[in-house]
Amino acid sequence: MNIIGLSGSLSAPSRTRALVAAVLGEISRQTGHGGPLIDLADIAADLGRTLGSFVLPPAIEAAHGQLRAADLIVIGVPVYKASYPGAFKHFLDLLDPKVLEGKSAILMATGGSDQHALILEHQLRALTSYLGIYSAPKTLFARDTDFSDYRLASPAIAERVALVAGQARRLLRTPAAHGLAEAA
Ligand SMILES: Cc1cc2nc3c(=O)[nH]c(=O)nc-3n(C[C@H](O)[C@H](O)[C@H](O)COP(=O)(O)O)c2cc1C
After folding, report:
1. Helix (H, G, I), strand (E, B) or coil at 179
2. Which domain holds residue 64?
3. What is the pLDDT of residues 123-138, one digit of tens each?
4. pTM of this structure
């Protein structure tokens, strides 16, 4: 079972990365299956100088390979100008559109306010659906004020992390890890 996180933030440190890591950790707690995290901040410079997909820099090729091998992708993006970052879209544009077909995903975003939370529904879900990815029905949106020093600091968001991790478990058809109730 391959689970992978994808943080679409170009910042380091990053709230988006922290959110993706928190959900990966909770999925591991609930299912016993962990996974690595692709951080676009690590390959942003390569992305910026790559115009076509004929010969990709090794770091981008490696990240694409991790996505190709995944069963479930935990996707987190920051809102930049009422959308996901252009570099995140470019990372996916460099990938054959068919290779993510049939995979599952959890969709998440971070933003300065709730004003653009619906990018999850009308932009990120539209993009992942185009790629043939089955996204979980409940998404997760966290504001900057839900973090302290780039760590989650909101009980309400912690609850939501548990909820989306439960959805991941269902998408993966994995029984609850020993000691966890079979809930939501
Ligand atoms: C270039 C840029 C544009 C942004 N535009 C928006 C926006 O339109 N709406 C919003 O709610 N937040 C916006 N933000 C705030 C970020 O979404 C927010 O601070 C997010 O938590 C950043 O995640 P990070 O820590 O992973 O970089 C913007 C931030 C940047 C850097």
Report:
1. coil
2. 3-171
3. 999 999 999 999 999 9
4. 0.95
